[in-house]
Design brief:
The protein has 215 residues and is α/β, with parallel strands linked by helices. The protein has one domain: P-loop containing nucleotide triphosphate hydrolases (Rossmann fold, 3-Layer(aba) Sandwich), CATH 3.40.50. Helix content is 47%, strand content 15%. The protein contains nine helices and eight strands. The strands form two sheets. Strands 2-3-1-4-8 form a five-stranded parallel β-sheet, sandwiched between helices. The chain has a three-stranded antiparallel β-sheet with strand order 6-5-7. Helix 2 packs across helix 3 and helix 4 packs parallel to helix 5. The longest helix is centred in the last third of the chain and has 15 residues. The two termini are 15 Å apart. The relative contact order is 0.19. The mean pLDDT is 95. The structure holds BIS(adenosine)-5'-pentaphosphate and magnesium ion.
Length: 215
């Protein structure tokens, strides 16, 4: 099954994509995580992407489409995949459609997570991510057992560089201008399942698994 998670910053795409990936056994493909890894490794692409990410702007379509095409061609995507944070613009959606059609494949479902703006600003301000395994926490809504240490692997938890309130508001604006039109695009294709992202994390996962038929 080939799934897209759509939703504004902080709507829970990463949290839910990880849970659903573990439940259904399809890899989570997060363009944000891949770009952050490139920044950490200081690759030429990472060095270029960093200033755009820190400003809350999108990285160029060409760069992101290139990394997703390469990722989708790997063998672990053959039975299915979960895209988290891609596509984010209409050109990205068109490029995805042609890449998949070259492989005789298509998107099966688009999960659209709905949340209100003030809640996402609060969620992002409290988000902490494990440096080693990528597990996400929230200092208030989903805290680790020991402050700043991952429950799963004991790694350090960190705050993302683009999570300052001013940058988060910019990311929300970029979302409504460039990404929200994709909800219409995929609705017209009959693929969108809308999920209320304001519920507890486990309630959101239950609802997603139900609409995907995995529960
Ligand atoms: P990306 O990493 O994709 O960030 P984003 O879309 O801004 O979304 P976030 O990762 O901030 O939020 P999320 O929806 O994953 O929420 P999460 O699960 O973490 O992109 C970052 C940047 O990379 C972009 O700005 C851009 O520059 C670049 N980029 C990436 N993809 C690109 C593309 N395709 N094209 C161009 N540029 C691209 O949850 C947030 C917090 O809330 C966590 O602490 C979590 O524990 C908590 N939480 C989650 N669910 C709940 C709940 N139900 N109740 C309470 N708390 C919850
Ligand atoms: Mg994310």
């Amino acid at each position: 099954m080939n799934i897209i998670f759509l939703g504004p910053p902080g709507s829970g795409k990463g949290t839910q994509a990880k849970i659903v990936s573990e439940r259904l056994g399809f890899p989570q493909i997060s363009t944000g995580d891949m770009l952050r890894a490139a920044v950490r490794e200081q690759t030429p692409m990472g060095l270029k992407a960093k200033s755009m990410m820190d400003a809350g702007q999108l990285v160029s379509d060409a760069v992101v489409i290139g990394i997703v095409r390469e990722r989708l061609s790997r063998s672990d995507c053959q039975k299915g995949f979960i895209l988290d944070g891609f596509p984010r613009t209409l050109p990205q959606a068109h490029a995805l459609r042609s890449a998949l059609s070259e492989m005789n494949r298509q998107i099966d479902a688009v999960i659209s997570l709905e949340v209100d703006e003030e809640s996402v600003v609060r969620r992002i301000a409290g988000r902490r991510t494990c440096r080693d395994c990528g597990k996400m926490y929230h200092v208030e809504y989903d805290p680790p057992a020991v402050v700043d240490l991952c429950d799963v692997c004991g790694g350090d938890l960190f705050l993302r560089d683009d999570d300052k309130e001013e940058t988060v508001r910019r990311r929300l604006q970029v979302y409504s201008e460039q990404t929200a039109p994709l909800v219409d695009y995929y609705t017209k294709a009959g693929l969108v399942c809308t999920v209320d992202g304001m519920q507890d994390i486990s309630e959101v996962s239950d609802q997603i698994l139900k609409v995907l038929g995995g529960n």
